[in-house]
Amino acid sequence: MASTTLFxxxxxxxxxxxxxxxxxxxxxxxxxxxxxxxIANNFSxxxxxxxxxxxxTYEEFSARYEKEFDAVQDVFELQRNLNNAFAYxxxxxxxxxxxxxxxxRRVNDFPTAVRVFEGIRAKVENEGQYKQYLEALEGLRNELxxxxxxELYPKNE
Length: 157
Description:
Component of the cytochrome c oxidase (complex IV, CIV), a multisubunit enzyme composed of a catalytic core of 3 subunits and several supernumerary subunits. This protein has a domain at 58-149: Cytochrome c oxidase, subunit Va/VI (Serine Threonine Protein Phosphatase 5, Tetratricopeptide repeat, Alpha Horseshoe). 61% of the residues lie in helices and 0% in strands. It has ten helices and no strands. It is globular, with a radius of gyration of 26 Å. Helix 4 runs parallel beside helix 6 (94-106), helix 5 (75-87) packs parallel to helix 7 and helix 6 (94-106) packs antiparallel against helix 7 (110-123).
């Protein structure tokens, strides 16, 4: 069991004694009150907690996000899906990014389209991978008229 889970269990049932006495209208129980540690020991620590999410492959991830970007109807959905896609410990595929750029065009959100490329730059490991993504998305970028941040704000060196 994770240490944070134990901490939550331990702190959840600790209450000041005055809080218990404040409720004078509560009926008296004939059963003894069990401590929080005794309650916590009733739980098995060997069972793995499952959140309901199974492992998905990169292809399943890409297909899921392509479908989500194709269904985007407003800016909030677009930005939420982009945040979720970039939150994973991987760089989204070119197909997912092209679906995101098309969705940005569909909802007429120019700043988010530019920020897609900023997100790519932040997620890749090196400049060479960033250039590969730029080459793969060059046609769509020119078609939609999405400049890069480097083109909009060149560094003064």
